[in-house]
Amino acid sequence: MKTTTKNKIQSALSFFLGLIFTMAGIEKLTGLPDIIGPHYLIEELAKHDLGLYGSFIAYAQLIVGFLLLTNRFRTLGAMMLLPILGNILVITISLNWQGTPYIVAFLILLNLFILLLDYHKLKFIFSETDSTELNQLKVTRKNKTRDLYYLLPLLIILTGSLFGWSETGKLITKIGFGVALLSLLAFNIAGRFRKVKKAGNEM
Predict the structure, then answer these.
(1) DSSP assigned state of 37
(2) pLDDT tens profile 128-153
(3) From residue 198, how far is each of 4, 8, 11, 157, 201 by CA, in Å?
(4) Residue 100, Cα to own-chain centre: how many angstroms?
(5) Where does residue 14 rank: exposed (0-12), middle (13-18), buried (19+ CB within 10 A)?
(6) Average pLDDT, stretch 60-79?
(7) I need a labelling partner for 180 at 20 to 30 A (CA). Which of 62, 94, 122, 153 fits?
(8) What does the pLDDT average to over 103-116?
(9) Residue 94 pLDDT more than 70?
(10) Higher model confidence: residue 8 or residue 191?
(11) Residue 30 near residue 45 (C-beta atoms within 8 A)
């Protein structure tokens, strides 16, 4: 598989899963329209003194989903999503939800495929290479400032979640999500522009 084709497939799948779980987390925290999962999860778990656990699930879905939306951190997001999907699968099977386990199993396959495409980033886990070689590997970031651009909309969304299901919370969350999508679009356009410019310079 060509690198460009692999990147396009991986980006599309990551964005799909990221959108689903970002919105699932946002909905549980603010009441905005949901794509997956019961919106009443926190309230239902609170009846059994597990409200904090419900909030943890919602924030985990939001953060992991947001990581998947970004090409920059999608590998980390895919690794974190796997145990979340595993838990959802077991719960839906235990509760005898008709059809839902198949949907979750399909999402797990998509998640595994994303990780498979990122095998070269993860192969050190399976390798018997001496740890001293890995210690010499440096963390390189071509543009550290971009990390902050991803962090800003996530912080806005998390701020909105603190207001709960109020109109203020929904408005702030919408702004944060809008900024996130615009940032991702801007980075995508800028990346394409750099590739075209580089290709022009090489001619």
Answers:
(1) S
(2) 766 666 677 777 777 777 777 778 88
(3) 16, 20, 22, 36, 5
(4) 21
(5) buried
(6) 90
(7) 122
(8) 94
(9) yes
(10) 8
(11) no
Is the CB of residue 104 less than 8 Å from the CB of residue 89? yes
Q: Which amino acid is at 12?
A: A
Q: For residue 123, give Cα distances in angstroms to 114, 142, 150.
A: 14, 22, 27
pLDDT band at 18 (very low <50, low <70, confident <90, very high): very high
Output the six-digit token pair for 19.
Answer: 């959108």
| Among the listed residues 15, 123, 19, the one whose alpha carbon sits nearest the alpha carbon of residue 74 | 15
Q: pTM for the complete prediction?
A: 0.81
Helices (H), the chain: 3-30, 41-46, 51-69, 74-94, 100-117, 119-122, 131-135, 144-161, 167-202
Q: What are phi and psi of 91, to 5 degrees?
A: -65, -45
Mean pLDDT of 165-177: 87
144, 179, 182 from 185: Cα distances, Å? 18, 10, 5
**Cα–Cα distance list, 30 to 25, 54, 55, 69, 124 (Å):** 9, 13, 11, 20, 39
Contact 18, 80 (CB under 8 A): no
Structure tokens at 189: 């356009």
- For the chain, the average pLDDT equals 82
End-to-end CA distance of the chain: 26
Instruction: Count other C-beta atoms under 10 Å from residue 121's C-beta.
Output: 12
* CA nearest neighbour of 36 among 65, 76, 6: 65
